[in-house]
């Protein structure tokens, strides 16, 4: 597991959270100034220097349940409040988007371009706030300094760490289903054609080289049909502050006119992390619990004087019926998943299994020892042998040993 994967997955998840919140604020017609204030409060906490110092410290990847608690604290760092179903839905949308982006990168270094796309989009949300813009600029410099010089192996290790963290999630998202990039069982449909990674060979060509002991030269080339259509990459993505990232992964896929719906598939292999407020139950590992506790304490509050009267609830569902269906599907998945892992044994109904009952009846309790029927019969048929064994057993008893010595 990579010790540098946490900042990448944190920034990507944070970017997806802000995309969804921005769309829902627009859909619920929240006042423009209030919506901007909410985004600024969340982003200022998310990119605060003390908080990022802890996130960028080399460490093991957090568990998904830790990310769930962490982003709930971030979402509630403003006057906005989310109930548990809405937060569950938000986290599902975040994790599935990041999983799709991580799966689809053509080369390991592209995962850094995806993160930069998130930073570019987040910057647009708070372009009016000089304070937030300065925080994002510092995060950008820290990100480039940490990851730009990494080789392919290190970046591939980061990619594997992220995929391992999200590997068993199969939540169906309507946006992905409409774009036909997700199947109805929750898995993603990965394209086997299109542009290849930059500086990679296009499938369909076999190159033969000859070696004249001085330099290698091409002897001949032959073509074959690879079965799909491939195209050369346009150019390499740029790490520059306002450079062309080339890839569209990591950009905001939610527009104001597009609904943000997620459909939970009860028949899928999706396993939900049941997050409760008790960190001891949720994060049993002491190191992970201490790490999560520190990160949560570094998250501040809204700069405005937030009171219960000023707080408002943001709902990620279009209506109460949609929320009820979502909760019902979640409960069904949880019940099915728990029942499939429980194996019950009933030791009280011994008479139902004659073979087991016969084996159990072979043992009888005599004194402080358990002896079976065969040993009892042997004891009666060979008393001298068992008498000698009893004397040897008595050797362990100091009192018996001294009595025998006195008799002699």
Descriptive key words:
408 residues, mainly alpha, two-stranded parallel sheet, two-stranded antiparallel sheet, extended, OSCP1 isoform X2
Can you characterise this structure?
It is a single chain. The chain is mainly α and 408 residues long. It has two domains: 5-340, no CATH class; 351-407, no CATH class. Helices cover 51% and strands 9% of the residues. It contains 16 helices and ten strands. A hairpin with a 2-residue loop joins strand 9 (363-366) and strand 10 (369-372). Helix 1 (5-27) runs antiparallel to helix 2 (32-46) and helix 5 (84-104) packs antiparallel against helix 8 (152-166). The radius of gyration is 32 Å and the shape is extended.
């Amino acid at each position: 597991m990579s010790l540098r994967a946490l900042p990448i997955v944190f920034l990507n998840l944070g970017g997806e959270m802000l995309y969804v919140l921005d769309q829902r604020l627009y859909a619920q017609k929240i006042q423009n100034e209030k919506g901007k204030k909410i985004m600024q409060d969340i982003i200022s906490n998310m990119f605060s220097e003390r908080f990022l110092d802890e996130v960028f410290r080399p460490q093991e990847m957090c568990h998904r349940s830790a990310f769930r608690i962490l982003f709930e604290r971030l979402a509630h760092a403003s006057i906005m409040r989310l109930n548990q179903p809405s937060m569950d839905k938000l986290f599902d949308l975040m994790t599935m988007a990041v999983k799709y982006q991580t799966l689809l990168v053509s080369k390991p270094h592209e995962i850094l371009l995806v993160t930069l796309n998130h930073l570019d989009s987040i910057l647009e949300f708070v372009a009016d706030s000089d304070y937030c813009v300065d925080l994002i600029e510092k995060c950008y410099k820290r990100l480039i300094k940490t990851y730009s010089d990494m080789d392919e192996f290190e970046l591939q290790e980061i990619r594997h760490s992220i995929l391992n963290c999200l590997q068993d999630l199969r939540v169906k998202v309507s946006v992905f289903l409409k774009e036909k990039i997700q199947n109805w069982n929750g898995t993603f449909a990965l394209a086997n054609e299109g542009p290849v990674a930059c500086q990679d060979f296009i499938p369909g060509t076999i190159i033969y080289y000859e070696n004249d002991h001085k330099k290698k030269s091409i002897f001949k080339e032959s073509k074959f049909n690879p079965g799909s259509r491939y195209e050369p990459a346009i150019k390499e993505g740029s790490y520059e502050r306002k450079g062309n990232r080339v890839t569209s992964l990591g950009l905001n896929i939610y527009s104001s006119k597009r609904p943000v719906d997620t459909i939970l598939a009860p028949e899928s292999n999706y396993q939900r992390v049941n997050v409760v407020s008790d960190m001891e139950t949720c994060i049993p590992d002491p190191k992970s619990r201490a790490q999560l506790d520190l990160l949560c304490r570094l998250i501040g509050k809204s700069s405005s004087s937030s009171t219960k009267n000023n707080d408002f609830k943001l709902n990620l569902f279009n209506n109460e019926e949609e929320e009820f269906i979502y909760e019902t599907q979640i409960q069904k998945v949880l019940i099915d998943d728990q029942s499939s892992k429980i194996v019950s044994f009933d030791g009280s109904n011994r008479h139902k299994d004659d073979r087991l009952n016969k084996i159990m009846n072979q043992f009888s309790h005599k004194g402080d020892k358990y002896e079976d029927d065969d040993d009892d019969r042997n004891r009666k048929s060979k008393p001298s042998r068992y008498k000698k064994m009893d004397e040897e057993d008595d050797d362990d008893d100091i009192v018996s040993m001294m009595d025998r010595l006195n008799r002699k």
